[in-house]
């Protein structure tokens, strides 16, 4: 009996850095931008390559776990995650850091299904298994929510590379404990991996995101963006056709034909887009515009972290009492209203008002996420529960990656359109300063103090305006989706759930 909980402790220890690394770089973004001389597009790739690669790799890695056993999968994933952490900590430029983060994602995609399979295998009693899964879910949501705070604390005393180095002792301990205490399992050597399909999906996703991010650059023409977008879309269509024809598809596309399941997936993606995109936006504004340190920025965002990590039980209770349709619609609508309030609030002089809106955002977005899970799982036949769970995991990771890309796109376009730079800058300096506030900081650092201050003043004003545009746009989209959810989750199908 005691060994079960020891194994759970090892599983949780392995899962902690995976969850934290999804958001730990949010408060480090400004420091990364300056230290690596990264462009606005490179900065977004550094942050969201982790979620995007994981979204495509987690399903075949789950199949690999069935083939070799979750113990071997967790050991292999931990080794890759550790190597990726080392490479990221000492990356000399943005390109190598992006590659290291992609390697981290591969390791994380192995650890994630290994932890779930480990709980399933270790706990035979349904009650104990539910408790273990509840602990696992709390660690996942809490780790992601508090990732920025962890990053802020580490960067108060060390450079940005230490954010990755803290993974090394955890990985070493996981390897030692797993090797010593986690039992071997039976495995199915005939299990198909679908690895080529996973690579196809990852390439299609990255191609789509690359097209979105290329549109952020003021000197990129529409035809150049389309040249990247069209092949990615064609590859994605080809992937879907393969899934529909395959006797053992990586993703059960047929599930998307169910209106409630499709609505749940859209809600999951949208909720993650809102939460992750907002955290990154806030981290940049608080540091670049208001001059806060990474730790101060993380502490300022603490209300949304606490609200999102602690409101899971409330969301479950509301779904049980009020029904999925009402709760899901309310979650999306209140998230939209939160963004409207934040768009009109003064972050410098109305802190308590801002924190109140953050708390509402954290609660409502979490309610929407739990409603998405409920919608997906309640509408899925029992024999396809595993496939639905895999789709849900992909939706969360994809939403996290897209949140950074989409918020970044709207922010960059709005910023470039309104910035009024001082006279006397070279053409290259003007182009860089108008691309992102991070690049404006780099330009200002190379100018004499007077002109540098003028560049930063212009960049700060443009960023503050763009921040309001992004949040107002998110408000409109979420309110529109709330209306869609209300009609999609019909009373006949959902009120009883």
The low-pLDDT segments are 491-497
Using the coordinates above, name the CATH class of the largest domain: Mainly Alpha
Biggest β-sheet description: none
Q: Indicate the proportion of strand residues.
A: under 5%
How many structural domains in the coordinates?
Answer: 3
Number of helices: 21
At CATH level 2, the architecture of the largest domain is Up-down Bundle
Helix content: over 70%
Shape: globular
The ordered string of helix (H) and strand (E) elements is HHHHHHHHHHHHHHHHHHHHH
Q: What's the gyration radius in Å?
A: 22 Å
The termini sit apart by: 34 Å
Give the beta-strand count.
Answer: 0
Fourth CATH level, the homologous superfamily of the largest domain: MFS general substrate transporter like domains
What name does CATH use for the topology of the largest domain?
Growth Hormone, Chain: A
Instruction: Give the integer mean of the pLDDT values.
Output: 83
Summed up, what is this model?
With 497 residues, the protein is an all-alpha fold. It is 80% helix and 0% strand.
Features:
mainly alpha; 0% strand; Growth Hormone, Chain: A; disordered C terminus; 3 domains; 497 residues
């Amino acid at each position: 009996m005691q060994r079960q909980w020891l194994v759970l402790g090892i599983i949780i220890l392995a899962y902690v850095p995976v969850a934290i690394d999804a958001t730990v770089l949010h408060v480090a973004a400004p420091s990364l931008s300056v230290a690596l001389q990264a462009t606005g597009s490179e900065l977004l790739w550094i942050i969201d390559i982790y979620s995007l690669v994981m979204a495509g790799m987690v399903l075949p890695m789950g199949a690999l776990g069935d083939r070799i056993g979750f113990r071997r999968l967790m050991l292999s994933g931990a080794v890759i995650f550790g190597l990726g952490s080392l490479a990221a900590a000492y990356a000399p430029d943005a390109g190598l850091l992006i590659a290291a983060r992609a390697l981290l994602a591969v390791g994380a995609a192995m650890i994630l299904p290994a932890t779930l399979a480990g709980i399933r295998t270790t706990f035979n009693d349904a009650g104990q298994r539910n408790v273990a899964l509840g602990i696992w879910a709390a660690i996942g949501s809490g780790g992601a929510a508090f990732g920025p705070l962890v990053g802020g604390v580490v960067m108060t005393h060390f450079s940005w590379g230490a954010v990755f180095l803290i993974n090394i002792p955890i990985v070493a301990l996981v390897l030692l404990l797993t090797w010593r205490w986690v039992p071997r399992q039976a495995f199915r050597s005939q299990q198909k991996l679908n690895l080529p399909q996973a690579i196809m999906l990852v390439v299609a996703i990255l191609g789509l995101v690359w097209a979105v991010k290329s549109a952020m650059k003021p000197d990129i023409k529409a035809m150049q963006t389309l040249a990247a977008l069209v092949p990615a879309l064609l590859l994605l269509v080809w992937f879907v056709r393969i899934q529909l024809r395959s006797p053992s598809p990586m993703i059960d596309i047929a599930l998307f034909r169910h209106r409630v399941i499709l609505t749940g997936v859209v809600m999951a993606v949208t909720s993650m887009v809102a939460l992750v995109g907002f955290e990154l936006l806030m981290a940049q504004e608080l540091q670049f515009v208001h001059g806060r340190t990474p730790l101060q920025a993380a502490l300022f965002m603490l209300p949304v972290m606490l609200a999102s990590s602690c409101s899971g039980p409330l969301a479950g209770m509301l779904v049980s009492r009020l029904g999925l349709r009402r709760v899901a619609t309310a979650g999306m609508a209140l998230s939209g209203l939160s963004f409207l309030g934040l768009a009109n609030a003064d972050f410098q002089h109305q802190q308590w008002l801002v924190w109140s809106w953050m708390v509402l955002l954290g609660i409502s977005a979490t309610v929407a996420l739990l409603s998405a899970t409920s919608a997906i799982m309640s509408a899925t036949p029992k024999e396809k529960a595993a496939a639905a769970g895999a789709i849900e995991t992909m939706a969360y990771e994809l939403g996290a990656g897209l949140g950074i890309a989409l918020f970044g796109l709207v922010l960059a376009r709005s910023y470039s359109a309104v910035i009024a730079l001082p006279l006397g800058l070279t053409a290259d300096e003007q182009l860089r300063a108008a691309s992102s506030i991070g690049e404006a900081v780099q330009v200002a650092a190379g100018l004499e103090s007077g002109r540098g201050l003028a560049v930063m003043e212009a960049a700060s004003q443009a960023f503050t305006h763009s921040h309001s545009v992004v949040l107002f746009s998110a408000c409109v989209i979420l309110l529109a989706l709330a209306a869609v959810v209300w009609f999609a989750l019909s009373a006949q199908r959902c009120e009883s759930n």
